[in-house]
Amino acid sequence: MSEGEAETTRGAAARAYDAARPLFSLHVPKTAGTSFRSDLEAWFGRERMAFHYRGDQGEPPPRASLRPGLCVHGHFNRLRGIGVRQYYPQADQFVVLLRDPFDRFVSTWRYLHFQVRSGVSAPEFADRPDLETWLDRRRAAELPEDPFSFLAQLADPADPNDPAGVFGPQYLAVGVTERYAQSVELFAAVLGRTAPAKITRLNGAGEPHRAGDPAEERPDLRRIYQRAFPLEYAVYAAAVARLEAGRRSLGL
């Protein structure tokens, strides 16, 4: 392994899963987390699942009563006061799926349109901006303080000088949506479960309840996004490296 590769995969020596302690599944919005929830429910059973989601009007999630073998899955967000360490200071076992940052940005923009149509509180999106306007607003925000960045969903802030370090050993496994089947196979192996024979994909943009979402396509904005948010892309690259390292270590 070259020096550069070693830096990218730093922190890959994850802890072994401890079933005597709760697991926290950090559901970054628009990264197949609803699909992954169905796999977690199959592995843990509904009686050993707890969920961490705000109400439709922004009500904070309730705190789960932690116990051995529990899996807590949901939208944690440090910048909205509902981060995993804010709610559960003792949390020390994480799994997470990430997605190409620009693709997730576009998917989130479409989903915010759906939420506003559905009466969900989204004050920052009340005027339903087009994609370029929404990107301009996100660029104007200071990234460490932007709750719409996926970085706010992680347990700890990312260091621009060490983006791979955000995935410390408390992350038992890291996956990416673009390699969802391989990611789920890794999660199953790490958690001592059986990988599903068939991959489940739920809550897709093409489902009937999403009719009315904007169909705007702006591939020209991808390069602008990449230049504006290099830390997001560095952390995403580290996630891909962690996925590959985890699979290699288990012979997958």
Short note summarizing the structure:
This protein is α/β, with parallel strands linked by helices. It has a single domain, classed as Rossmann fold (3-Layer(aba) Sandwich), CATH 3.40.50. It has eight helices and five strands.
Structural summary, described in words:
The structure is a single chain. The chain is α/β, with parallel strands linked by helices. The protein has a single domain (3-249), classed as Rossmann fold, CATH 3.40.50. The chain contains 8 helices and 5 strands, in the order αβαββαβααβααα. It has a 5-stranded parallel β-sheet with strand order 2-3-1-4-5.
Task: Walk me through the topology.
Elements: H1 3-8, E1 23-26, H2 33-44, E2 49-52, E3 71-74, H3 84-87, E4 94-98, H4 101-117, H5 131-140, E5 171-176, H6 180-191, H7 221-228, H8 230-249
Parallel strand pairs: 1-3, 1-4, 2-3, 4-5
In DSSP terms (H or I, runs of 4 or more residues), the helix count works out at 8
In total, the number of strands is 5
How are the strands of the largest sheet arranged?
2-3-1-4-5
Helix vs. strand class: alpha/beta
Number of domains: 1
Properties at a glance:
9% strand, 252 residues, alpha/beta, Rossmann fold, disordered N terminus, 8 helices, 35% helix, five-stranded parallel β-sheet, single chain
